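[Meeting: bench + compute handoff]

Bench side (C.D.) handed over the final construct sequence. Compute side (W.E.) agreed to return the predicted structure before the next meeting so the bench team could plan truncations. Sequence as handed over:
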Amino acid sequence: MTTALDSWNDPYVLPLPSPESPVVLPQWISPTNTHLNARYWEAVWPLAPLIDNPGTSLFKIDWARCPALFLAEVKLAAWTMINGRLRPTYLQERGGAARARGSASDMRDTCNEWMQLANWLHARRFTGLADCTEDMWRAYISERLTGLSRDHGARTCSRLTDLWAFDSLSAQPAGIGRPPWDIEGVDGFLPAADGSSQRENSTEPLDPQVLGPLLVWAIRLVEDFADDIFAAWDERRRLIASANANQGTAESLATLSEFLLTRVRAGDTLPAVLCRDQHGLARVYISALTGASLGQFDRFTQQHGLSALAAKRPGPCPLQVPIAGQVGGIPWREHIDFEESTVLMRHLGTAAAIICLYLTGMRPQEVQGLRSGCCPDPEPAADGVPERHLIRSQHYKNVTDDDGNHVSAGEERTVPWVAIAPVVRAIRVLERMVPEGELLLSSTHHDIPLQRDYHGALKNGALNTRIEKFVRWVNREAASLGLPDQVIPQDPHGSIGMSRFRRTLAWHIARRPGGLIALAIQYGHMRTALDARTSSAYGSRSRGGIHSVLDIETALAAADTAARLRDRMNAGEKISGPAARRAVTAAAITPRFEGRIVPRTFAKKAAKFLARDGVVLYDNPDAFLICAFKHDNALCEPEPGATAPRQYACQTGCGNAVRTDAYARQARERADEIDQLAAATPEKIARRLRLNANRLREIADTHDATAQPVKVLA
């Protein structure tokens, strides 16, 4: 325990706050942070003065959940945590993951953990934190960790240890005992490893049949429909401004009367909008078209009882803008409706966000931190060939200052991301939606149509909701356009969340099931950009960035390929191809991975595994072969230092090819399918199709003539 005498000259011990002391002391608030602070005595402490990350919600601590007998002690420890720093000796004992000061979200979660302990003690008639002795700690932690994963349990123990640590740094310690796991080691207190870890590498990738149409529709909105949607949005805003500026005249009243009463007498529908599940006359739309003032409109419709009639006979409010976007050579709309334009603008922003989240490899917070101007058009190189587009971004994970304090604002990546074409076009769309220099996913400017003043970028919860709404819209659109094969099915692992895109990108680059996934060529370009890491350090930083995720997924895919080949050979299948012997060796020495939980330490092992040139197997079902990748033999022209083939550029006659009986059979089946297609196709195209079918049969015939069982090749 720290005494008053000890704390007099101790820079880590804070003086006692007064009721009027600010919750966050000025030295911890950045000059650009304008969020309101609170006073010590208040029942709710906003942590917004500590938050500069635009993708982070504004957290707060609500003291209503803390029992009154413990409130003063827990509050003092919390204030010390918010404004103090843990001692360097304390941090050194706990390894590199410990920080002197954590993030606002960590502080909120830590305080909630402390209040949970306080409620447990209060329920057992204890009156202060000093009653939490070693025996009490053991009793509490055995209950608290029940049902938790090992990771969650470790975080809980760490937060409870921090209560003891910060209590010792206050000028008036409560005297809580040191938790026994901080002395004996935490392993003996944690649950057994049960596979419920929530690490990034254990996140399930999106199903290919989900991601395929999702990506098709996202790119379709950005590349084919965006101009139509922006034109409709501009026309809607013009009509609103016009309606608000209209001055009622006798002529406008006559025009309004003719516009509405002609439709009423003819039994036609009336332009209507939906408000609170009830159709009503499109007040602004009709006023803008007729020149009537809004007051004139209100008096006229009330006089003739038209509101009730509109609910019975609702009709469209077409905007007079041309439709340029097409699906299969047919315009995707006859017109865009006045009210629909707001929905389409929200979906357009969501589509652009999906592309950025998925086709960059960025973490969600990095995408949320992107600003207009982050991806300028490059200057042509000396030879006239344009350079790649680069994205300058902030990263936030594990960013600390020289003293180990969490930096909420993050820092700019030392090496930018490389942007492939769909990402550049998505960024250009988002730049049209926000002012220059603003966050591309600004909560204010994506709050369509109200544009209320919100903090930072759209948060994870809002974006996840928008993605689910986008999926529902896509499925309605696919049905109306007669595109049942482009419906987005339900993912077997639950909702499409932002956190799943990064893992999914690595999964699809590594496995590339081309028949089920659109834009396979883009995965190849991403793989090419990633394989240039040795020279360009693409997207890299000290903790490995997207490379570690890709290496892990590629290693798992290669191990799965080896295991399947081993099983097929053991079942009697024969194999052929110039790399058949190497494939047998690779299948024999590659371990099988039964689970999907991947510890962080596996990243280095994965990179080492992939570096074994010549004995790593890559499945390529589109080419009906397995590639036993040896860099010098590859005809797909991989980048220097690449550890994987460019599967989209697979070439006939490559020295890395291996085929199985199953692939020969599938090649024949595909040839039969192509012949059936050729029979219903014009002759010029049919000839090409039949040539392709014959080529596949030749591949299968060559396999049948040269294939050997594993016992001969071993």
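W.E. noted at the follow-up: Residues 154 and 190 are 7 Å apart (CA to CA). C.D. will use this when planning the next construct.
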